[in-house]
Amino acid sequence: MNTSHKTVRHFITLTDLSSGEFRQIIARAIELKAIQHRGEIFEPLKNKVLAMIFEKSSTRTRVSFESGMAQFGGHAIFLSPRDTQLGRGEPVEDSARVLSSMVDCLMVRTFEHEKAELLAEYSSVPVINGLTDDVHPCQLLADMQTYFEQRGDIKNKTVTWVGDGNNMCHSYMHAAKLLQFKLNIACPEGFEPQKKFIDETADFIEITSDVRSACSNSDLIVTDVWASMGQEEEQKVREQAFNDFQVTPELMSLANDDALFMHCLPAHRGEEVSAEVIDGDKSVVWHEAENRLHAQKSLLEFLLVN
Ligand code: CP
Ligand code: NVA
What we know:
Rossmann fold, 2 domains, binds phosphoric acid mono(formamide)ester, four-stranded parallel β-sheet, 42% helix, five-stranded parallel β-sheet, single chain, alpha/beta, globular
């Protein structure tokens, strides 16, 4: 029997939010950051517990959720398949029922997107997607917060995605639709985003293999690794395919004068981005990484307090 509670809000893709809610979470993240930087204690999640299932590696996602829960007066539990029964084949449905009877929120980072959806279906508490093969919605909360802080509203701006049509690209496509910016996607043939995401966001995106024209007049250039987690064996093939898709100072010079550079990290200097760009003055990657903390605290407050 499906024991899901229909009123529970999950965050499995960005489109689980309305445009207004997305904007509200960004605005609140900026306030929570100011509270944190002033050193004020703010504990809206006292005694609340977040369980985090990680089937893939993580630095930023794990530490931002764990610190965020501690700062909010709550607690986070790290669960890996190596030492839980999930790794020994206990069904996701059973794990969802059991974990959600003990904690207030679940986070999952996994391979198949359907697994995150199944966890949400059988969980009685909110489930947050901390990355699947299909999408990485938490990263977009932080990226959009960073753009708003640095340059103001992103509505009607032009963003250029350079590289693989991967999970990050799909979440940028969702963000384009929700926040109404134009998204150029420059990728090699055969590495385009999945059709279902193209169909969902067609009015807001343009896909091309001409990386130079895609970067022209852009307000934000974003890239990501050529081989994502789970694609390690394709690294050599991908290095060849993506050879012309490195974000260089020359590509950045085609964009608008005040264009920013973002990367969700971890980055490979000399592959998808040159060291001059990621360590240069247009790069906001360190703000972007820090904002994972503030944006996810805002998300946790939205899901658990409101
Ligand atoms: N950007 C991001 O999600 O980083 P981690 O893989 O370190 O969590
Ligand atoms: N596309 C990358 C993002 C890592 C945060 C991956 O899935 O490995």
